[in-house]
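Customer escalation, tier 2.

The customer says the design service returned an amino acid string that "doesn't look like it belongs to this structure." They asked us to rerun it and document both sides in this ticket. The original structure tokens are below, unchanged.
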């Protein structure tokens, strides 16, 4: 099955209806993911990125810093594909051992172990192709872990 990224037209914003049409059967899993992520204090904002020529959802965690200023960190990215969606979490390389010590499924630990650092950037991507909610517990654990790496 070929993977085709959707939401490529900068003039068509990713409304619920547009996303529903793109995801088909995976829409239920997407809605569940977006609802639950709110319980983890994450706000998702959609924006068209010219470098990737697609709309991406940016999952932000915001908090008030020690001096009273608003702080934020990007916790994950969401992209819409034909029949599924991807959630990508970037973990600092220096935290690989810590993230491997989390209570995660073997499949997720394999993804973490196999992930390659991104060139000179000191992060490695964890990419999850989601058609159902079977990996959500692991993803939420990774989201909560990523929030601690301010």
């Amino acid at each position: 099955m070929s993977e085709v990224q959707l939401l490529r037209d900068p003039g068509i914003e990713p409304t619920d209806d547009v996303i529903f049409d793109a995801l088909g059967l995976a829409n239920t899993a997407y809605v569940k993911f977006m609802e639950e992520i709110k319980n983890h204090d994450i706000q998702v904002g959609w924006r068209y990125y010219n470098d990737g020529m697609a709309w991406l959802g940016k999952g932000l965690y915001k908090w008030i810093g020690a001096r009273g200023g608003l702080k934020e960190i990007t916790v994950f990215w969401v992209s819409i594909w034909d029949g599924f969606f991807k959630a990508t979490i970037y973990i600092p390389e220096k935290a690989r051992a810590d993230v491997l010590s989390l209570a995660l499924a073997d499949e997720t630990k394999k993804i973490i172990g196999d992930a390659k650092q991104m060139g000179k950037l000191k992060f490695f991507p964890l990419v999850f192709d989601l058609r159902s909610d079977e990996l959500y517990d692991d993803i939420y654990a990774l989201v909560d872990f990523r929030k601690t790496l301010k």
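Tier 2 assessment: The sequence is consistent with the input. Residues 12 and 18 are 8 Å apart (CA to CA). The two ends are 38 Å apart (CA to CA). Sent an explanation to the customer and offered a walkthrough call.
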